[in-house]
Specification:
It is built from eleven helices and no strands. The chain is mainly alpha-helical. The protein has one domain: Growth Hormone, Chain: A.
Length: 300
Amino acid sequence: MDYHRQNTRSLANGIHLSGVMVGSGLGGLGGWIAERHNWPFVFEFFGVLGIVYSLVLLVLLRDRPAAARPAAGPVDGAVSRVRLGEALASLFRSKGFVLALFFWGFLGFSSWAFIGWLPSYLNERFGMSQGEAGLTALGYIYSAGLVGTIVSGAWADRWSRSRPGARLWVATIGVLMAAPAVVPVANTSVLAIALAGLPIYGFVRPFPDANMVPVMCQLIDTRYVATGTGLLNMFGVMVGGATIYIGGALRDAQVSVSTVFNCGAGGLLICALLLRFIKPPTTARPAATGPTLPSRPRSA
């Protein structure tokens, strides 16, 4: 977000997140490798890859030079520190941020409920092997998601030139289309119908992902975009992790995975409702007052 301004922000974020889609799609290889070795080997293998990649980032990743950034506020020669308490107070005074936080939590619930249990669902309902179910579930969804992140980013950037709330509308359309795509997957006994719903869900579900950080840049003090995005990530992952655990408890209680999926679809509808209550400014957001440190927002 430091490197891209208003007219290219969502597309740049979408392209960046396309890497997440590729990696997540290939994550289905874990089941395939486990069938030939074991799960500890899978964790160790990908753990080593992560360590190697962190070294690559350490050497190559750099912030945009501060002089090249448009100032977020008047600069008087002294640079104030961004303090966590002040950042949190500023964020939670913003109604838009609080709504976005709840939105991201419901999105984590819906997404993790579906993606987390989808390979097991395909394995049990359609008799796929562990590796085949993982590759099918993640391959269909994230291949389409690779396209969806880029398309939604480009669409939002173009539309936002004439409509201030365009990024939120693109995100809303995405979750509204994702919800009905889950229902046939959850309630059919025909494999072809289930597989038809997966790429539809995969294409539209990333629409809010490509646009949420650009939306944060419109809603909150630009000094705290990184902090706000970190909170969104943390809350979404906490809710998603709890959802996986609760899903397992429900399965132990003989509640079907289909019921979990249908609840996830309902959560997506709540997400759309929350987005409609977020009101971006009709004009460009005023610059933050006072000197600032450059923020380093991370994709949500």
